[in-house]
Amino acid sequence: MIAKTLIIGACGQIGTELTEKLRAEKGNENVIASDIREGSEKLMNSGPFEILDATNYNDLEDVILHYNIDEVYLMAAMLSGTAEKFPMKAWDLNMSTLFNALNLAKDSKIDKLFWPSSIAVFGPTTPKDQTPQKTVMEPSTVYGISKQTGERWCEYYHKRYGVDVRSIRYPGLISYKTAPGGGTTDYAIEIFHDAIEGNFYRSFLTENTALPMMYMEDAIRATIQIMNADPTKIKVRSSYNLSGISFTPKELAKAINKKIPQFEIDYEADFRQAIADSWPSSIDDTEAQKDWDWKHEYDLEAMVEAMIEGIKASKTS
Ligand code: SER
């Protein structure tokens, strides 16, 4: 039997592409998209869609019972940049949605939960290069504190109540289908839009700020792969390190220049520089490779090509 799936935050950067992919795999009617706001016509019309505020336990439970949901992907969150501006709101949103989903799983209203964590769980005292799965974690951002806390609760609910929760520490995700909102790694998306428009780009991170990144297609594949893995293979119930590509704004600009030679960039750091400086430059994801056979596909060159082609194609369609 095909598991009935609910995606919370389906209109967001990850949610849109996850919904598209899962609907293609499982059949449109088996994937219920939900968000606090409306999304694209394409997303809302390609299968069941619900306006849902997942901070409200009863509303979430109603949707889960109504559609007989088996598994939930909880993709709603306030990202790092915005969270620094609205700390209490970010904490509230990021934690209450997680607790609602964990408690519904604990009460057997759903069988399985995916919850995304982030490289933001690491902090300035974490080893920066090839950051290991288990290491010092002293996050210094509101977003990072919420993700680190969330990881602890996921592991707790698994150990204490047997909840089947699975999680990945996403690096910065690069995509063109839906814009991200309020992240520190968003420069790596904005840059493409300006380059293709023939504009120059002013990066809000300095030229040598290396961060772990990943092309969205790899991230979606990882997400579905960990959810489909046999439960005995999931040894880490906090969240798995996941590694894709590591690069700096300067290196990205250089890679874009190979395709768009006239593109120019300059650098003017804003408050997000401090956030980026507290995060790793690259990630070691040996555990994910070992436990559920993870392997990323896109390198810098392939990602740049896919982004340029994708943005160009979406402008002409
Ligand atoms: N991309 C996210 C952000 O910048 C990190 O998880 O907030």
Q: What is this structure, in a nutshell?
A:
The protein contains 12 helices and 14 strands. The chain has 317 residues and is α/β, with parallel strands linked by helices. The longest helix has 20 residues.
Please characterize this protein's 3D structure:
- The chain is an alpha/beta fold.
- It has 2 domains: 5-172 and 214-241, Rossmann fold; 175-212 and 245-316, UDP-galactose 4-epimerase, domain 1.
- Helices cover 44% and strands 15% of the residues.
- It is built from 12 helices and 14 strands.
- The protein has helices at 13-26, 41-45, 57-66, 80-85, 87-106, 142-161, 187-197, 216-228, 249-257, 272-277, 286-292, 300-316, and strands at residues 5-8, 31-35, 49-51, 71-74, 112-114, 117-118, 164-166, 168-170, 172-174, 201-203, 211-215, 240-241, 245-247, 265-267.
- A 6-stranded parallel sheet has the order 3-2-1-4-5-7, with helices on both faces. Strands 6-8-12 form a 3-stranded parallel sheet. Strands 9-11-13 form a 3-stranded mixed sheet.
- Strand 1 (5-8), helix 1 and strand 2 (31-35) form a beta-alpha-beta unit.
- Helix 1 (13-26) crosses helix 8, helix 5 (87-106) runs parallel beside helix 6 and helix 7 (187-197) runs parallel beside helix 9 (249-257).
- The chain starts with a strand and ends with a helix.
- The mean pLDDT is 97.
- The structure holds serine.
- The site of serine has 11 residues, from loops.
